[in-house]
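Deliverable D5.2: sample structural annotation.
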Amino acid sequence: MSNPNTPDNHDALLDSLAANLKNLTPEQLTRLAQLGESAKIAATTRSKGNGILSSAYRTPGIVSPAIISSESPEFRELAEQLRLEEGYAREMEKQRTFQLLSVGEKAPNFSQVMKAFTPEMLVAAQGFQNPMLTFSTKGRSFNDLVAAMDAHKTIPDQEDAYVSGIYNDDQAERPLETWGAYIVDGPREMDVIRDFDDETLILRERLKRFADYKKANGLKGMDRWKYAQLMMQAIKNGRPLDHDWTWTMLDSDPALSTSLVPFAFWSPSNRRVNFDSGHPGYGYGGVRLRRSVGGDVPNA
């Protein structure tokens, strides 16, 4: 007996339906569209040739459990376009490399992580520069993340991270109570986001413009936890962020005040990760802003 889910049988079904379009019901037309779209996604996925995504659609119209079946087809397509399953695998490898999982702690699976996002967030993330998935690790504090970078150096001649005293606050040693998942602007060096930013302005004005932009577009910014996690992914691959005299402003960090603006970068001369700060009334042409979407992972 032939298998109705083989590609050949699906091709035959498509040919038969296409020849009788005039007689198709609305339900049949919808099914035809679904089959065509699934076949297209499967072909595209196979052409990428990577072991993570190649099994995302095993047969046309049948969705693998690796993709969240409870979400809409549009949501799944957005997740595919952003390569989030591949990003999840990278993040899990990073957690192991830097030994971030606490004893007895279990990381959320891919389906759980995807529940930190809405379709609107994924649409917004498509406009990011090199969108990257990153986690915040339950049970780990900011000081834990810095210690992990220092204990597992991945760059030749890498020195211990420098952390300014402004980060020595009541948040520094506080373990996170939940897992978080975020999609962020992930390039090694950010371009100025001309939609709202101007590097010739003082930091105070740039912060205000960014705050207005985030509010209008439902976005978040960067803090020390997101940046440390993103930097760990970068240095694990031997390509630290902000390595050419650019700095990422930590606009959403609790250390931000009317007198100090936190930012972070890789120092090429000292060969280390720096968490430092600047004055909001000064202009720093090398400072860049990174956007993010996401939040806590439910039930993780």
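Annotation notes: The two ends are 44 Å apart (CA to CA). Residues 72-296 form one domain.
The annotation will be released with the project's public dataset once the embargo ends.
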